[in-house]
Design a protein that fits this description.
The protein is mainly β and about 80 residues long. Helix content is about 0%, strand content about 65%.
């Protein structure tokens, strides 16, 4: 797996489970452009930030032993790996 670049956002495709118990959304896996699907091993934390009238849903996750952050933009329904 490539290293996660903490200084840039990369748009990714995410498979997520919506409406699961106390967590309204849980990312299960994601796919970077030109790569295979990567499984999210654990959801660590979620938060919502409002930026310029847009809600950003932020998910801190574990991928194996690596930490990563996935962001969901509620305006254009896009996912980013940060």
């Amino acid at each position: 797996m490539k290293n996660f670049n903490k200084n840039q956002k990369e748009q990714v495709e995410v498979m997520a489970l919506f409406g699961y118990e106390m967590t309204p959304c849980q990312p299960l896996s994601f796919r970077r452009r030109g790569e295979n699907e990567t499984e999210v091993t654990e959801l660590l934390r979620t938060q919502i930030r409002f930026v310029g009238g847009v809600a950003l849903h932020i998910f801190d996750v574990l991928i194996g032993r690596d930490k990563a952050r996935l962001e969901f933009n509620s305006r254009d329904l896009s996912w980013y790996l940060t």
